[in-house]
Structure formats: structure tokens, C-alpha cells
Design a protein that fits this description.
alpha/beta, 15% strand, eight-stranded parallel beta barrel, globular, 278 residues
Length: 278
């Protein structure tokens, strides 16, 4: 087991009807936590970082770290560039060795999104990488700075988009949102089921932080295979560090960061039912 394509991880999840967590990382401690937890619980893993998060975590630094951690893992790990906005950064991620990239053209018209996504598919093919894209528009924004309105995915557009672009995984909007939910999430499982019947590739749920276990498992039953988790991990790290502060030793602090991130990864792996699959 080592660094693998995300497509392979999602295919196994499809065949056995479980979900796989795609955990956003921002530093070495989070990378260690995700890998360690996946190994302890024998779960496949998707490590990811979004383009908007590269300010505090430069790609040329964190990217190689993610790749090397995946290569040495005893479980299959895909390294994914999430919410890629520019071809330049997507190509940089591919050059570093990322086995999966996402192009986010959700703010474009359907026609423009198809055209731009096809360019990324062609680029990624030359690296043997998996491509994810989004149709419809997930609420909020990846870094929490913009309150983007949800645009629910239509069945017809999802089918056309998947067919014409040749992508490997499709992120859809069924009432999910990035960041912290302002109320109880109201996911359209009826719509998810319809899309799953018409689209043959694995489906992706963004905005996983704050969704209940029951809703996660219902989503998985109806075709969701990749589930993004970011905010809840970051929040749990801050919460635990604040509870234990002040620290008088850096290495105690370092290990507490790892533990806090690992706690959240474990909870979600169990909810997604990916534990014990390796």
C-alpha cells in the first residue's frame, strides 16, 4: 500500500458501498495525524489541500510532504489538490506528484465549465491523475471568506457534464455547504438518488463538517463516495489546544496537535464506514 490514484480508492468504495474521507491538511502535524489514524484503523485515505489554503501552507512545501507521507503509508493514500482555480497551480500540484486534482468551475456557466474542465482532464491524463469537478454550486467558500449561495445541481446538467468532460468524480450541490452550517443541514437525498441513477462516476460531498452520522450514511447509500472534511478538523485542533494551554514544551504541543487532528479523522472514518477495509 502506498501512494495511489483517487480513482482506485473510490472504485473500491463503490464496489463495497462505503465512503472515504478526504481530509484537508495545513501542516505536518495534520499529515501525520491523518496517515497514523488511517494506518491504525486500516482505512483508505485521501489527503488534500485547497488552492485557497496555500497562503499559510505553500504548495512547494506542503505538497512534497504529503506525497512522501503517502508513499510510506501502509494503507492506500491518494493526494488530492482540492478546489483548483488556476491551471498554473493545478499543473504545479501534478508536477509535485499529486495523484488527483479538482478543477472548480462552479461559478462559470455550464458551457464554460465544460470547456475549462476538459482542459484540466487532458492535462491530468498526461500525469495519470484522477480529475474531480463540480456542477451546481456548494454553499459558502472553502476558506470561509465568502458566503456563496447554493445552486442545487440538476440531474440533466450533472449527466451532461460528466459525459462531456470525462471526469472521474463529480462534486454536487444537494444542500451542502462549506464551513460551519448556519442551521441544520437539509440534504436533498431524493435529488442525490436521481443523480446517482444517471451519473456513472463516483459522487462527492463537499462541506462535510457538521453533517450528522445518519445523513452521512444515507448519502453513502445513495452514491456519495468521497466526503470532504476540513472545518471540523481545524476547529477540533483549536479547541483542544486552547483547553490544554499553556504549553511549556514545544514537543508536547506538537503531539497534542497530532492527537486533536487524529481524533476528528477517526470519528469521520468510523461514520463513513471506511475502517477495516484494508
Amino acid at each position: 500500500m502506498t501512494l495511489v490514484k483517487m480513482k482506485d480508492i473510490l472504485q473500491a468504495a463503490e464496489e463495497n458501498n462505503y465512503g472515504v474521507g478526504a481530509f484537508s491538511v495545513a501542516n505536518m502535524e495534520m499529515v501525520i495525524a491523518a496517515i497514523r489514524t488511517a494506518e491504525e484503523h486500516r482505512s483508505p485515505l485521501i489527503l488534500q489541500i485547497a488552492e485557497v489554503r496555500l497562503g499559510p501552507s505553500p504548495l512547494h512545501l506542503i505538497g512534497p510532504m504529503m506525497i512522501e507521507a503517502a508513499k510510506k503509508a501502509s494503507v492506500p493514500v491518494a493526494v488530492h489538490f482540492d478546489h483548483g482555480e488556476t491551471e498554473e497551480k493545478i499543473k504545479e500540484a501534478l508536477e509535485i506528484g499529486f495523484t488527483s486534482v479538482m478543477y472548480d468551475g462552479s461559478l462559470l456557466s455550464l458551457e464554460e465549465n465544460i470547456v475549462e474542465t476538459k482542459k484540466i482532464v487532458k492535462l491530468a491524463e498526461s500525469y495519470g491523475a484522477t480529475v474531480e469537478a463540480e456542477i451546481g454550486r456548494v454553499g459558502g467558500s472553502e476558506d470561509g471568506t465568502v458566503d456563496i449561495e447554493i445552486a442545487i445541481t440538476s440531474v440533466e446538467e450533472a449527466k451532461r457534464f460528466a459525459t462531456e468532460t470525462g471526469i472521474d468524480a463529480l462534486a454536487i450541490a444537494i444542500g451542502n455547504a462549506h464551513g460551519v452550517y448556519k442551521g441544520k443541514p437539509n440534504l436533498r437525498f431524493d435529488l442525490l438518488d436521481e443523480i446517482n441513477q444517471e451519473v456513472e462516476i463516483p459522487l462527492v460531498l463537499h462541506g462535510g463538517s457538521g453533517i450528522s452520522q445518519d445523513d452521512f450514511r444515507t448519502a453513502i447509500v445513495h452514491g456519495i463516495r468521497k466526503i470532504n472534511v476540513a472545518t471540523s478538523t481545524f476547529n477540533n485542533v483549536v479547541k483542544c489546544v486552547n483547553e490544554d494551554a499553556p504549553f511549556t514544551d514545544y514537543f508536547t504541543f506538537h503531539e497534542r496537535l497530532i492527537q486533536a487532528a487524529a481524533e476528528n479523522v477517526k470519528v469521520h472514518m468510523e461514520m463513513f464506514q471506511s475502517t477495516g477495509r484494508i
